[in-house]
UniProtKB/TrEMBL annotation:
This is Glycerate kinase. Belongs to the glycerate kinase type-2 family. InterPro entries: GK-like_C_sf, GK_N_sf, MOFRL, MOFRL_assoc_dom, MOFRL_protein. Keywords: ATP-binding, Kinase, Nucleotide-binding, Transferase. It catalyses: (R)-glycerate + ATP = (2R)-3-phosphoglycerate + ADP + H(+). PANTHER family: GLYCERATE KINASE. The keyword Kinase applies. Its EC number is 2.7.1.31. Residues 308-422 form the MOFRL domain.
């Protein structure tokens, strides 16, 4: 390759990606910045001219990440036609490349995004607003680097793998309408409180420049399906019958817990002989869950008498009304544990355990990836004078799991250096 090579990376998984790029191009790399989460560098040994810079503590945009964004923009603004830019993107990239559009301050932008998230806005809605209020998102990183050629490698953390929304699409064409972000903000009744800086940015249409399609190529190299497939393989090795039900789970955890409870009742009825296979599929199809019905056929095609492992993936949301500490992957197992406790008689003599975790190792602003729940969790918590309902109401799932059983059901892995949404593992075993 005769071109000068530059590398830009942003996200929870890009450290490992960048190190692999370094091993491939090494001395050909002229310059570059890799924006990674606080605590994930582990005293990297630099092989090339790449700089690994930490920021976005607890997955929240901060001054360090903003300064890295400014350096990225400055570097890209000097590209020429003979330059080639390798861009590495994964989930978490929005927080790690947060440069606000002038005159918005980082605090103003972060406050808006936090309010939207607390109201229950999903990742797609959040990233639409981020694009409209940012200087490098929504294809603007690619525009800034013109006339250089750009190749982007992406690990998807959004259902459906939409290029324009993963890390808010820094190298993907922004096809949002001029009113998309405004409509989302109005949907959650936050428009009237917007500062003048954000209002002016939302009314600015200048960033919708012609996108340089011939110069930019985006490639998805990993997604939630990869983690589901790996879980299926591992479940088989542990002698469970794996049923991969979905890669596209979304929605509020309170609503999802209700659907999971109904799903588990149907599986328990089938395993107990109360309903036949045809009825099981029919009842599951009626649930408000995006399941792959054909994958249930494995129950009818193998002679299996042991335990079943239902495997699902996606990304959920939490409506925050309390003042506690937690995240969707700790709130969901608590919500489901409470529902199973209340509907224990419907589970037909089966024990149910479930692990809910983010593949990035971080759930919300905590050091946990998620947590484990089970049928008798509520009863066992009462023995320790812990009220599950109280912790749920206060959105304080992190502190519940920190106290309950001395934290042994907390999933704490640290940064995993990957990010392909969440994984839900549900074990059903005969008592």
């Amino acid at each position: 390759m005769d071109k000068s090579v530059y590398v830009i990376g942003t996200g929870k998984a890009v450290k490992s990606m960048a190190m692999e790029v370094e091993s491939m191009f090494n001395s050909k790399i002229r310059d570059g910045y890799i924006s990674i989460p606080k605590g994930s560098s582990n005293k990297l040994m630099f092989k090339s001219n790449l700089k690994y810079i930490e920021g976005a503590k607890d997955n929240l945009p901060d001054e360090d990440a903003e300064n890295t964004s400014k350096k990225v923009k400055s570097l890209l603004s000097n590209m020429c036609i003979n330059d080639f830019v390798i861009v590495l993107i994964s989930g978490g990239g929005s927080a790690l490349l947060p440069l606000p559009k002038a005159p918005i301050t980082l605090e103003e932008k972060t406050t808006l995004i936090k309010k939207l998230a607390n109201c229950g806005a999903d990742i797609k809605e959040l990233n639409v607003v981020r694009k409209a209020t940012s200087d490098l998102k929504g294809g603007q990183l690619a525009l800034e680097a013109q006339p250089a050629k750009i190749g982007t490698l992406i690990l998807s953390d959004i259902v459906g793998d939409p290029l324009d929304l993963i890390a808010s699409g820094p190298t993907a064409e922004n096809k949002d309408s001029p009113t998309s972000a405004i409509n989302i903000i109005k949907k959650y009744h936050l428009f009237e409180d917007l500062p003048s800086s954000i209002l002016s940015a939302l009314e600015d249409k200048a960033y919708n420049k012609a996108f340089p399609h011939n110069n930019v190529h985006n490639y998805i190299i990993g997604s939630n399906k990869f983690s589901i497939d790996a879980a299926v393989t591992q479940a088989k090795e542990l002698h469970y019958l794996p049923v991969a039900l979905s890669y596209t789970i979304t929605g509020n955890v309170k609503d999802l817990a209700k659907q999971y409870c109904k799903l588990l009742k149907q599986f328990c009825d089938y395993l107990n002989g109360n309903i036949d296979f045809k009825t099981l599929k029919s009842e599951v199809s009626k649930l408000d869950l995006p399941v792959i019905l054909d994958n249930i056929n494995i129950l009818n095609t193998v002679d299996f008498k042991g335990d079943i492992c239902l495997i699902l993936g996606g990304e959920t949301t939490v409506e925050v009304t309390g003042s506690g500490k937690g995240g969707r992957n700790q709130q969901l197992p608590l919500e489901l544990s409470l529902l199973l406790h209340e509907n224990k008689d419907c589970l037909s003599d089966h024990d149910i355990y479930f692990l809910i975790a983010g593949t990035d190792g971080i759930d919300g602003p905590t050091d946990a990836a998620g947590a484990i729940g089970y049928t008798n969790l509520v009863t066992d918590a009462r023995k320790e004078n812990l009220s599950v309902q109280t912790y749920l109401t206060n959105n304080d799932s992190y502190n519940f799991y920190k106290k309950f059983r001395k934290g042994e059901l907390h999933i704490i892995t640290g940064h995993t250096n990957t990010n392909v949404m969440d994984i839900h593992l549900i074990l059903i075993s005969k008592q």
